[in-house]
Amino acid sequence: ESLVRTFTPFYFLVEPLDVLSVRGASVIMNCSAHCETPPRIEWKKDGTFLNLVSDDRRQLLPDGSLLINSVVHSKHNKPDEGYYQCVATVDSLGTIVSRTAKLTVAGR
């Protein structure tokens, strides 16, 4: 008789950590999730999903990490500073959300 497997392991291998950056630097927010079915990885910043498809500065790396090229930071424009979460989804199982990592950009 066959045993029905009721539990499929689905968990984060790596979750993002708080980062201190400077303007113009590149930052990687690390994230990697494990499952038999490769999870779909998305990123939230300040609670809102990032649209990385049309983004020329931010890209999703193959392992699920987020690369931010050339951090932008000025008095009136701080698009990169904030709180990031990695969101992993396997359609048949559901969604897991990473810890929240803060990206701080150091001033001059």
Automatic annotation (TrEMBL):
Keyword Repeat (UniProt): yes
Pfam families on file: Ig_2
InterPro entries hit by this protein: Ig-like_dom (IPR007110), Ig-like_dom_sf (IPR036179), Ig-like_fold (IPR013783), Ig_sub (IPR003599), Ig_sub2 (IPR003598)
PROSITE patterns: IG_LIKE
GO biological process, one term: cell-cell adhesion
Domain (Ig-like) ranges: 9-104
Keywords associated with the record: Disulfide bond, Immunoglobulin domain, Repeat
Family according to the record: Belongs to the immunoglobulin superfamily. DCC family.
PANTHER family: NEOGENIN, PROTEIN SIDEKICK
Protein name from the UniProt record: NEO1 protein
Lineage of source species: Eukaryota, Metazoa, Chordata, Craniata, Vertebrata
